[in-house]
Amino acid sequence: MSDPLTARFRVESFCRTLISHRSFARLVTRPARHIALAAAMIAWAGCGAGPVDKLEGKWVGERIDNVSAEQVARATAWVKATTLEFAGDKLTVTIPTEPARKGIFKVAKVDGDKVVLSVRRKDSQARDESTFMLQGDKTLRWDIGQSREVTLVRAQ
User: How many degrees, rounded to 5, is the angle at CA 127 between CA 124 and CA 131?
Assistant: First the structure.
């Protein structure tokens, strides 16, 4: 029986000899590249969804905060008929009594769960900025100005 050090030396020597042959090096290198590429893709996918991915889908209005008691009923009805739909870089905003507004958006700023979108209207070069706050996977808060926020929930 040989000692462990001698056995280890033989294995290392065999591996060095085997790797020095070009054909074996090519066989090892190609799969290694594929494995590295696959590992990078898995790591990238595992990093979690970005803000655009988290917004994807249809959101339906649920309530509005910071409106006067006289306006609550009317404002709530307006909010419940409001939807936002994100598909890739496209946004469709549907609000009561108006045609749906469509535009292309870009993420202007991300600060934790707060996302500022720069939206270009479909038939114009004009851009509007809107601020959203993601709260988990199913709730989105939309800052509509004047210290008012619309809470939307993800459509089923």
Answer: 145
42 lies in the same domain as 57: no
Q: What is the pLDDT along the chain (156 residues), one digit of tens a residue?
A: 444 444 444 444 444 444 444 443 444 444 444 443 333 333 333 445 677 789 999 999 999 999 999 999 999 999 999 999 999 999 999 999 899 988 889 999 999 899 999 988 777 788 889 999 999 999 999 999 999 999 999 997
Work out how many domains the chain is built from and give that number: 2
Q: What is the dihedral of CA 98, 95, 123, 110, to 10 degrees?
A: 160
Q: Which of 26, 155, 20 is nearest to 86 (CA)?
A: 155
Q: Are residues 34 and 57 in the same domain?
A: no
Largest pairwise CA distance in the chain: 94
Q: Are 93 and 110 in contact (CB under 8 A)?
A: no
